[in-house]
Amino acid sequence: MDSNEKSTPHTMRIKKYDFKDENIILDFHEFEECKFENCKMIYYGHGPLGLTSCEFLNCQWEFFGPASNTLSFMAQMYKNGKGGDKIVETTFDNIMRGTYL
Length: 101
Fold this sequence. Notes:
Distance between the termini: 25 Å
Oligomer: single chain
Shape: elongated
Number of helices: 2
Order of helices and strands: EEEEEEEEEHH
Helix content: 25-40%
Structural class: alpha/beta
Strand order of the largest sheet: 1-4-7
């Protein structure tokens, strides 16, 4: 990596690689301009990840640990919390606008 490229500490950076029929652990990886075909994308939520200009074809997504807990929390907020549905919708609106991070 040259001095102009930035990477999050303790992550592996993978650029312009095609993955097919693989299990991909997302935690602590930065993928740039990669193609994923028929892959199982797995996120635990234990560390940072990056997905920049990647393509996903017929992939499955699985979430475990803290990532799964976050999704469960948001689902409960959306379904059962008074006003929780608006909080979740606003969160997703902000993510889509790029204003969340």
